[in-house]
Every structure is written in C-alpha cells, then in structure tokens.
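User: I'll paste a sequence; please echo it back and then give the predicted structure.

Assistant: Echoing your sequence first, then the prediction.
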Amino acid sequence: MTAYEPVIGIEVHVELSTDSKMFCGCAVTFGEQPNTSICPVCLGLPGALPVPNRKAIEWITEIGLALDCEVSERSVFHRKNYFYADLPKNYQISQYDIPVCHDGHLDVTVDGFTRRIGIERAHMEEDTGKSTHLGDGGRIHSAQSTLLDFNRSGVPLVEIVSKPDIQSAAEARAYAHELRALVAELGVSDARLEEGSIRFDANVSVRPEGNDELGTKIEIKNMNSFRSLERAIDFEIRRQIQVLEAGGELLQETRHWDEGTDVTHSMRTKEGSSDYRYFTEPDLAPMVMDRAWVDEIAARIPELPAQRRARYIAAGLDASLAGVLSDSEPLLRSVFDEALAAGASPKGAANWLTGEVTAHMRRNEDSELSLTGAQLAELIALVEEGTVSSSAAKEVLEGVLTGEGDPAAVAESRDLIQISDTSALEAVVDEVLADNPDAVQSYAAGEKKAVGFLVGQVMTKTQGKADPRIVNALLGARLDR
C-alpha cells in the first residue's frame, strides 16, 4: 500500500486596526449597526476614487519585517475581478506579482522540534462586506435570503501566504498560533479569531512519500479556532488519502469545514489566478518604499514572542513555563522582568505570576495589577527564608494585591510570620509527643507515616505558624534517639 505525506500551506488574513479603511476615510468599526460606516468609495459608486491608507502600508511593512521578509522597493496594486454579492465593485483592490513583502519565514516548534516555515508573500488588499445567510445551517446553499453589511468593506487586510512547507495538522496549528501571537505583539491588529480579525485558510494536498511532485491542492475555509484548523486539516488529509486509495481522483476545489459534523463539504471548484483577470489598478500609482522609512519601521519592532521565549529559557525557565509566561498579559511579563531585576528566582517569579496572580486577575476580572516586581521578589524571599510558609504566602499575596502594603508588612499585620525559633518549637514538640504516646509507639514499631500525624499536631498547636522543616527535624531527632 502506498504511503502518503501531506503538503500544507496556510493563507492568513489579518484585519488591521487602523482608524480608517484602506482606501477611504470611513471608520473601521466592529459591532456597529449594519451599513452605517460606508461611503461612495467603499460601496464602489461611479466616480469614487481610492486613496491609500499610509498607516496600513506602514503596518504591513512592520509585519513583513517581523517575518524576516524582503520589502519590495516598488509595489503595485491590482484589480482582482470576481463577482460576489458582498463585493460591491465586483473587483477587489489587491496585489498580484509585486507585493509589499516577500520571501520571509517563521519558526514553529512542535513536540520540542523546531522547523522553519517559509513565507511566500505578505500583500495588501481590502476586505469584503459581510454576508449573513438566513435559513437552516447559515450557508448560502440552504439560505432563504441573504443580508449584506458593508461596514467591513474596505477594511485594510493583510494576506500572509506561507510556502507549502507545513507537514502536519499539528504543525499548521503551531504556525497559526505563532503568527497570531506575532501580529498581536506588534499591535497592528487585535487578532481576535472570534471576531474574524484574523482568519485562516488551509491549502492541503497529499503525495506519495518521497515524491517531489505536488498533489492536487484543495482549499479549506470556515475554521474559526486553532482547534478547528487542526481538526479540519487532519480530516482533509485522511479524506484525500481514502479517495486516492480507492482509485478516485481529487479535484482542485474549495471546501467548507463543518464544525458540527467534523467534516469538509465541497463549496466550489477552485479558481486559478487567470480566473481573476488581474490587471494593474489604474486609479492608484505604484508605491515606492523609501529605504530610510523602512529602516525606521524596523527599528521600532518590539521583542517578538519567539525572542521572548528564548530569553526566558536563557534565564532558567523550562520551555513549557517560558511559553505560558510569554503568552500571558504584557503586565505580568513586565512584573516578571522587574522581579528578576530585584533578585527573584526566575522559576519562582514565573510560577507565582502564571498561577496565583493570574487566578486573582481572572476572579476579579481585573486588567490592573497592584503588584510590583520588587514586591513579588520580596514575597519569594520571605518563603525561601522560611519567614512565611508557602500556604501563608498566598494569603500575603492576596493582601498585597488588595492594597494592604508590602509583603513583610502584610505578613506582620495578618499574623502570618512563621515560627522559626528552635527553642520555642522544642517545647511544642515535646508537648505533642507527651500527648500522643500511641503515635510515638506506632513510629517505633515501624509506622513511619505516624510522623505526619505528629507534624499536624504541632501545626495545629501553633495555628499553622511553625516552620515545618524545623518541626520535622525536631521530631526526627526525638523519635529516632
């Protein structure tokens, strides 16, 4: 039986968070009343002329540079001709053979192995309107009627096209997740999948293992989560292999992912570039990308997620914890860096921030944080020195987060200072041993777990304030003599 391997490419559409649309002054909005942010330009009315949005060109350049792309010295807009109800001009202003950015890459890691995925191009275009199909299933084939909202028409859209370098559904998910994190870090889009601010289409084919010739490419649409993307690609790989093994033939087509049934359905035959009849947009002059301007953009690119993870790992975090912290709120990452500067252990600071601090913010639906890096470092030091116990430290943290003061002051005011005075604890230990002769006898008979009971008794008598390390040492010295 022939063994097959998948060949996958991902097309990513990113809506930019500019104030105005790509070629007109209409506001970019989400959730407004339908058809309230429109004008003759984004409706394609006769005589309306487009004017490029400089900020959008700046931001696609920033995306391209972050992906290590080459920025074209000269870039041209084209008309992409096709006929859908949500495309008011019956063409989309897009780019064809001279995109803004080309030939970059993005590194992704799956199961501890990192691969480089090539980026073929990142080009600028305008978004279409939104169609709402009324009827069973919400799809055009079963719709009784369709409502059109052109508020989204003309919103700046960056299309990022990978090379067919992705080799599995899991790798496709990792690529999409990494790209989404990069875009969000740049701040050029809110990159929310649930709102369609970033959308993924997958091109999937299979071929016999070791064969360099590409198979029939099939596009999958309607994947609105990373999980859906992985499941849809995984299903499509299996489906294509089954068709070929049964002696069937695959058609180049676009398929719709059905979230409810976990299968893809045929939508239409896939268009080729010749079907779109591309020609240069006559109402827009070519863009000349000034090198000094591009260098200015490159200089302000922030630390990207992959760079941040590498820095955290170099500081002493394992890859898993570094990834969780890197994906956390910028505020938490800032506190982490401050805590390290104040002398905190990297693992201790990361565990507190991704654990108790994150839980507090979620419980209180709080985007603010009354905790400095210096305070976190102080809290960690109190635990490491034995001044407060690990469990009491959680209560100390709660006091700090609610504005009661620095960790040492909160521990003092809440009477959470751990008893570490050996002489004071010796008296309590002797009292517990005297009160529990059965447990002492059990220990002597080989029941070593009896020491846990005795430690609990000491903790009860000290209201949980005794240093358990000292208590264990004292009990061991007395029980074993």
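The chain is about 40% helix and 20% strand. The chain has three domains: 4-297, 305-413, 422-479.
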